[in-house]
UniProtKB/TrEMBL annotation, chain A:
Record key words, sorted: Cell membrane, Membrane, Transmembrane, Transmembrane helix, Transport
Subcellular compartments: Cell membrane
Organism of provenance: Caldibacillus thermoamylovorans
Residues spanning the membrane: 21-39, 161-183, 204-231, 237-261, 273-294, 330-348
Family: Belongs to the ABC-2 integral membrane protein family.
Protein name: ABC-2 type transporter
From TrEMBL, chain B:
Annotated protein name in UniProt: ABC transporter-like protein
Residues annotated as domain ABC transporter: 5-233
Keywords: ATP-binding, Nucleotide-binding
InterPro entries noted in UniProt: AAA+_ATPase (IPR003593), ABC_transporter-like_ATP-bd (IPR003439), ABC_transporter-like_CS (IPR017871), P-loop_NTPase (IPR027417)
GO molecular function: ATP binding; ATP hydrolysis activity
Pfam families, sorted: ABC_tran (PF00005)
Source superkingdom: Bacteria
Lineage: Bacteria, Bacillati, Bacillota, Bacilli, Bacillales
Source species: Caldibacillus thermoamylovorans
Length: 354, 239
């Protein structure tokens, strides 16, 4: 009964606070959309200058989405590249060729180098096999054939880490808003005032978890639906599993936010937890390869809730895993939440001994 | 008559600083007690221990026969803190309703109590305004209304009339006297206003954490050979 009164009051307070509502529901959608636009932007075709290029080579290069420009009698390579804004310059001498790369953007340079190499390798192989046209055609197709375990050749970078982004936004906004919620209750003195009423510590923690939990639940659904139906993020597995994972993520964020708020004395101090608690978790949530990290850092990753959340979300959304495949991640997340909730009960002891 | 509140050899320190030293006295049911003493003497600390928000380092406090802190007994204590603790985004009515629903009251009672408390502090016409739009005195009055909301047997009011105009102050005091006389409520008030102390049945004077005198206003005046409580206060300070 008292818990219900408290939940009602928490929800009422948030409904009155339009900015917080906007932060909770609109900000994540805005950022997700922005990231979608940034990462899914059209790739610009590299510009390659070529000297003494044979027709066949130029043809192959053009087929590989390279803009080819012809130059004759290049004396100063660097100068020509800068003058005509080329990403690379290919100087062919007989069967040998030199490729100079601008390399102002390593991704573009690597990509260009790879394509040029492939074309030259293919030519070399074709010349070795002096065969008739039909066999030649078959061979051309057979040299490199690519298959994908997850996704397809249409997979974009954003697809691989968007599942983790969904979890991250749920975590971040719920953490911040629930933390500040309880913090306000402390700084305005109302938490202390509540201790002069017969309310129990457990009832306060429960009300905060349920009240903000309801909001987090709504937020999760909005973010997930938006990501899947508007932004068209890949979803191979079940949407219900995605929602389940995110609700558990929200619970962890909620209990952690409330807990850390008792170590902050102002909203600004609450914000100071972001670089300490939130940012490190991004590094361990699957954008960067964890296997490539130093051993002790890999151990460190195991203490990050978002590491498990990202693993589970990527599993369901990108790899199409079922609930039983990710259940271990969920249990660990629930354990995190349980630990934080118990700590919360102790943190409130500062105010009420009973 | 049974003591409503019994404070037994209570001491309290924050860190190394001793705030209250061996306070010992009883508060009888159906009386108004005034706690007076200079700023920083420890009045608020003592009041918070009676409510059970602080725990004594030594000694014990019993309220209506129960050792404090005690959750169920809080149903019988109406507490008004020295600094207002209100939900600013909510209206006065929503604040009252929220606090009322933390106590055991049925719905009809709750509505009647909200109406009564708002009427008493003259806030009825402002109940639907947000607290953030209240003046300082209005907030103080709302805090007082919240303290009365569950019709408690014991009222503990920490400087209830600060920032309230003389007319309303008069009517609040008349209501406190009525609550004492008609409903037999036990009331503790801390105050720096000697006119208000004069209206109390008993006065407890606290200085630097010690209880230096308790008695009716007349007894204290006699004890310090003073004409009024102001002089009692000053005389006690010189000793
Ligand atoms: N939480 C606390 N931590 C440390 N010291 C405290 C704490 N609360 C009160 N004090 C100290 O205890 C002493 C008594 O404070 P208290 O608030 O009880 O005084 P008071 O008699 O109510 O004063 P006033 O008339 O100004 O309200 C003060 O010196 C104060 O600094
Ligand atoms: Mg005080």
């Amino acid at each position: 009964m008292r818990t219900i009164a408290l939940i009602k009051r928490i929800l009422l307070q948030i409904l009155r606070d339009k900015r917080t509502l906007a932060l909770l529901f609109i900000a994540p959608l805005l950022i997700l959309t922005l990231m979608d636009l940034v990462f899914n932007g059209k790739t610009v075709n590299p510009v390659l200058g070529i000297e003494n290029g044979k027709k066949q080579i130029i043809q192959s290069l053009k087929e590989a989405d390279i803009v080819v420009k012809n130059y004759e009698g290049v004396s100063n390579t660097d100068e020509v590249m800068l003058k005509y804004d080329l990403d690379g310059l290919l100087e062919v001498k007989g069967e040998k060729a030199t490729l100079t790369l601008l390399n102002d953007n390593p991704t573009v340079a690597k990509n260009l180098e790879m394509k040029v190499r492939q074309i030259f390798n293919k030519r070399a192989q074709l010349q070795l096999l002096d065969t008739n046209n039909i066999q030649r055609k078959q061979l051309q197709d057979a040299i490199i054939q690519t298959k994908y375990v997850y996704g397809s050749s249409d997979t974009e970078l954003f697809d691989t880490f968007s599942p983790m982004l969904v979890g991250f936004f749920v975590f971040f906004f719920v953490f911040l808003i629930s933390g500040i919620g309880l913090l306000n209750e402390r700084t305005t003195g109302t938490l202390e005032r509540l201790m002069a009423t017969p309310i129990k510590r457990g009832e306060i923690v429960a009300a905060y978890l349920i009240g903000y939990g309801l909001l987090a639940f709504l937020q999760t659904i909005v973010i997930v639906l938006f990501a899947i139906y508007v932004l068209d993020i890949v979803l191979v597995g079940s949407i219900w599993n995605v929602i389940l994972i995110n609700v558990i993520v929200a619970l962890v964020a909620l209990s952690l936010g409330i807990l850390l708020s008792s170590f902050a004395n102002s909203e600004f101090q609450m914000v100071q937890f972001i670089p300490l608690v939130i940012v490190p978790q991004i590094f361990f949530s699957g954008i960067f390869s964890i296997e490539g990290m130093v051993d002790w850092l890999q151990v460190f990753a195991k203490f990050m809730p978002l590491y498990y959340a990202a693993d589970a979300l990527k599993g369901v959304m990108y790899k199409g895993l079922s609930l039983s495949d990710i259940s271990q991640n969920l249990y660990i997340l629930l354990a995190f939440a349980a630990v934080f909730i118990v700590c919360n009960l102790f943190a409130l002891k500062k105010y009420r001994k009973l | 008559m049974n003591p409503s509140i019994s404070i037994q050899n209570v001491s309290k320190s924050f860190g190394k600083k001793t705030i209250l030293k061996d306070i010992h006295f009883d508060i009888q049911e159906g009386n108004i007690y005034g706690f007076i003493g200079p700023s920083g003497a420890g009045k608020t600390t003592l009041v918070k221990m009676i409510v059970g928000m602080e725990v004594p380092d030594q000694g014990a406090i019993y309220l209506l026969g129960e050792k404090m802190p005690n959750l169920p007994i809080l149903q019988e204590i109406g507490y008004m803190a020295q600094s207002d603790a209100l939900y600013n985004q909510l209206t006065g009515k929503e604040n009252l309703t929220f606090f009322a629903s933390l106590y055991k009251l049925n719905k009809g009672e709750r509505l009647r109590r909200i109406e009564y408390a708002a009427e008493l502090v003259n806030l009825t016409s402002d109940l639907n305004k947000k607290v953030s739009a209240y003046s300082g005195g209005m907030k103080r009055r709302l805090s007082l209304a919240i303290a009365l909301i569950q019709n408690p047997k014991v009222l503990i009011l920490d400087e209830p009339t600060v920032g309230i105009d003389p007319e309303l102050r008069e009517s609040i005091w008349n209501e406190l006297l009525r609550l004492k006389n008609e409903d037999g409520k036990t009331i503790i008030v801390t105050t720096h206003v000697m006119d208000e102390a004069e209206k109390c049945d008993y006065i407890s004077m606290i200085r630097e954490g010690s209880l230096i005198a308790t008695g009716t206003p007349e007894q204290l005046k006699k004890q310090y050979a003073a004409d009024n409580l102001n002089d009692v206060f000053l005389a006690a300070g010189r000793m």
